[in-house]
Amino acid sequence: MKKFVPFVVDVALVVVFCAIGRRSHDESIGAGLLRTFWPFGAGLLLGWVISLAVAAGREGASAAQRFDGRAVWPTGVIVWLSTLVGGMLLRVVSGQGIAFSFVLVAASFLALFVVGWRAAVQVLR
After folding, report:
1. Which tens digit of pLDDT belongs to each residue from 36-57?
2. Structural domain boundaries, residue 35
3. Partner of 46 at 20 to 30 A CA spacing, among 3, 14, 73, 102?
4. Structural domain count of the chain
5. How far apart are CA 86 and CA 71, in angstroms?
């Protein structure tokens, strides 16, 4: 069960990122949160799948037992990039659109949220 905690933290922080974004544009948080979240949530899920595959490919079949979802590298970086790139691509495909400034803001906030908490945990350990 403890292996799922980092995934839950990531999901919660991406929801917070989406809520902050909606609020900063004076949009209803409740009504459109799912519409804003799903592209980034799908990218996040893909990042976790890629991270597990990288661990399994690098360390063998027993990697799932030793996999650390709290690691900055490679897990945090993979999850961050996948959330950002996957989220942006899915936004475009679904007609939600993106702007260059939004990509920069999203990259910064998602790095702070997805990689930042992992770095803080490592420093505190």
Report:
1. 999 999 999 999 999 988 888 7
2. 2-124
3. 102
4. 1
5. 21
Contact 47, 83 (CB under 8 A): yes
A 10 A CB-CB count for 67 gives 17
> What is the three-class DSSP state of 54?
helix
User: If you ran DSSP here, which 8-state letter would residue 69 be given?
Assistant: T
In this prediction, residue 60 carries a pLDDT of: 66
The structure's pTM equals 0.93
Nearest to 86 by CA among 32, 47, 112: 47
CB atoms under 10 Å from CB of 79, counted, come to 28
- Please name the residue ranges forming H helices in the chain: 5-24, 29-59, 63-66, 77-93, 100-110, 116-124
